[in-house]
Amino acid sequence: MNLTAHAPILAVAVPLLGAFALPLWAKLHTSLRDLWLVLVAGVTGALTVLVAVQVYTVGIQVYTLGAAWPLDTLAPGGFPIRIILTVDALSAFLGLITVLVAVVGFSYAWRYLNEDEGKTLALTLGTLLWAGMLGMAFTGDLFNLFVFFEVTSIAACGLVGYRTWASRGPEAAFKTMVMYTVGGLFVLLAIALLYGEYGALNLAYLARQISGSVVDRIALGLLLGGLLMKAGAVPLHMWAPDAYGEAPAQAVILLVANTQISLYALFRVLFTLYGGVADPAIGWLVVSLGTLTLLVAALMAVVQMDLGRLVAFGAVSQIGYMLLGVGVGLTVIAARPAYGLVAIQGGIFHMLNDAVAIGLLFLAVGAVEKAAGNRNLANLGGLGHDLTWTTGFFLLGSLALAGIPPLNGFASKLMIYQSSFLLSPILSALAILASILLLAVFVKAFQGAFLGPRLRKAEPVPVSMLVAMGVLALGVLALGLFPELVVRHLVAPAADALWKGRDLYLQAVLGR
Amino acid sequence: MIGNAPFVVCMVLVLLGLWALLFRRNLIKVVIGIKIIENGVNLYLVATGYVRGGIVPIYTYAPPDAAMVLPTPQALTLTSIVIGLATTALMLAFVVVIHRHKKTLDGRKVTELSG
Asked: How many domains does chain A have?
């Protein structure tokens, strides 16, 4: 068996099977479960990296399910009827983000979750969510996009609400589930409209056929609505702070990666599926939604007193920066490719930076909650005396998120500011204003929770949690100090895949 | 015009479901609203695959040169029904837990989270 050819489907199948086998191992012994999780995570990570290396060095990888040979994408009539996975540089980039987030999250969860508080459940759902995210990133047809969308929805809501002994978790999970399900049904209705018109589900085939008729526009609107609901953009963000606030910390960083995967699906729809009939009006819509998101979420963060919800609004506002970057790119790329590309690169680079920086913050909040017993800023104070490392990590994460120069948030935000300035100076002024607001919010939170006199003795944070945070903190520093390296080798191919790579994407599947 | 009637019915179902979702406060009725949207979408999928005078799409049983209805939308609908079962079960499970804690199903009264 040729491992390289089969790697894309194995990267989805291994965590899927691994997740369902996890509770069975836990029945025997919890250490067997942990061993199994290490094995599954290691194999999945290695397979995803293998796929990514192939994509970055050789080119787009396709995998046809059920064909005699994985590269037989076309049936004898010259028509793609089978389920096809298509992995290009952007999919691989998102795959790598999920690997980073999942590995860090699981090593954090090892000591963060208590055995008698549903640790097996949380790990199972986390692995399932990972499988769904990889599936969404790698899939090459619309219907499987919907299937994996629902897999991630169910796993994510399970993670938010599995702690049924408290009332807030299930309530947040119900709210989230309603939003996710309605979003999923919008996506399904759009798929049905496109199928009714073109009789196909394959993304590449549809992209070649699409004509921009009224039905296509309705389908695009439904896809935008459904995917933005899942990405948590304002005005469809009301689930996000609840879910981020109530889920355990290691699950929250998976949820953040999940919103980025929805954004990936949105970009795939906008650029690859509708790239042939691109319309600047759609770009302006994305730009205005992005600006609204980053501003409203930053303003909402100001009034929060719960540390978890405060960081959650920070996370929602980062979604706005990604939408702004890619929306500016979509608006101008046809007219001025050079700076449209910088905008798209900024948006995509910000995905990685956001996963690292906001992940670090959420993990630090989880550590605070474990050490001090609560997260309310009114009751916290002086944690810096006992939790030296966590204090440093929180400070690093908040400065990176607010876009302070030597750290990673600055590198991508600068690209977004520059390119949106060329579209309209007001946009970049608003984006900078939101960053300043976030800085003020985080300074307030840092001062309230970590500085001041010691209120009571805090429990020490376990070493494995510190190591997980340390990995992300190193990421914050490294991405901030060497952004050119990352942009040139990882981000630029991913941004090219969206615009210049569209024909390659179609050729990889359709063969001409 | 009459050929479009199934599609119109599906859209009416979707809108009814959305109305229930937005204006009903009882959590069970919210779930029912989502199910109605889902059934509208599933009906739409099946309706797109219909061919006038078509028969069941099984090659071995079909007479030669008979028109068949499209098999793909039926497969999609089946998948979507199974997914819908899972999401509905999960949502109802959350409703049961919420009711156990709050002893009410009124969406306005259960909420502890805001903003």
From this structure: 1
